[in-house]
Input
Amino acid sequence: MKGVQRAPQQSVKEENDMTHPLLSQEHIDTYQRDGVVLIKGLFSDHIAAIRDGIDRNMAIPGPYAAENLKAGEGGRFFDDYCNWTRIPEFEQVIRTSPASEVAADLMQSRRVQLFHDHVLVKEPGTSKPTPWHQDGPYYFVQGAQNVSFWSPMDKVTQASLRCVAGSHLWQKPVVPTRWMSQTNFFPEDDAYMPVPDPDAEGMDIREWDMEPGDAVAFSFGILHGARGNQTTRRRRAFSLRLVGDDARYVTRPGPTSPPFPGHGMQAGDRLRDDWFPFVFER
Ligand SMILES: O=C(O)CCC(=O)C(=O)O
Output
C-alpha cells in the first residue's frame, strides 16, 4: 500500500499541494459537482500491461464473462469482471498505477478500497450501443465516495463513454436492466425511475475523443452508455471501480451484479478488506 506521512500542523495549502500531479483543483471540483471528469494519461504508463491482461482475460474468461450480442448482430461485444486475483497484469496495474491515489483526491477520501475490475471490448463492426445505465443500483455498496475509471486501450472517437453530468444527484436511481433482454434486473419497484433517453431529452452529455490510457472518472451514480464501434479499430476498455471511507454494504431487491457469492456481509458493514483490499491510504 502506498502512503504519505504528513506533519500534524500542516496548512490547508500544504494539504492541497498533496493532490496528485495529474490533477488540478478544477478536476476535483468538477468531479464533486458533475460526477464525471476526464483524466488525461491516468494509465499511460500501463497500457502494455492492461492490453496483455485483456488478452489473457479473453483467452481464459471468468465465470461472469458475457457476449452481449444477439445472433445476427455484427461484431463482438465481450465483457467480464472481477478478475484481478487471477490476471496478474490487472493486479499490478491496480497496485502500481496512480489510479488509487487519484481516486482518493477525487472522492476526497482518506482510504481507497478496490471494488472490482471490468473489461469491455467492442470489436470493429459492433453496432450495438451500451445501454444507458447507472452502475450503483446493480452494486451492493452505497456511499458518496466512489469512482470508476473507464480507460480505452485504443484511440476512441466513436465508442467513447458517454456520461450525463449531475445524474449522480438525481432523487431516484434508474432501474437496472439486463443488457441483452432489456428486462428489469430486480422486480418492479417504485424505488426506481425508468431509463431516460438523454439524447432525446437534451441532457448534458459529456464525452471525449480519447487516447489509450486516458480515463473518464465517473461516480457509481452517473448515467452512462456508449455508442457502437463501427470503426475499423478495436475498442478495448478497462474499468476500475474503487470506493472510499463512507462505502457500506447494502442489500438490494435481488442478487446484485457482481454477486460475490458467500461474501457474508450484513447491511451497514464496511466491505470486507480481505476480499476488497485497501489500495491507498493517506
Ligand atoms: O465500455 C462500455 O461500453 C460501457 C462501460 C461501462 O458501462 C462501465 O465501465 O461502467
Q: What stands out?
A: Helices lie at 12-16, 25-34, 47-59, 88-96, 99-107. The chain has five helices and 15 strands.
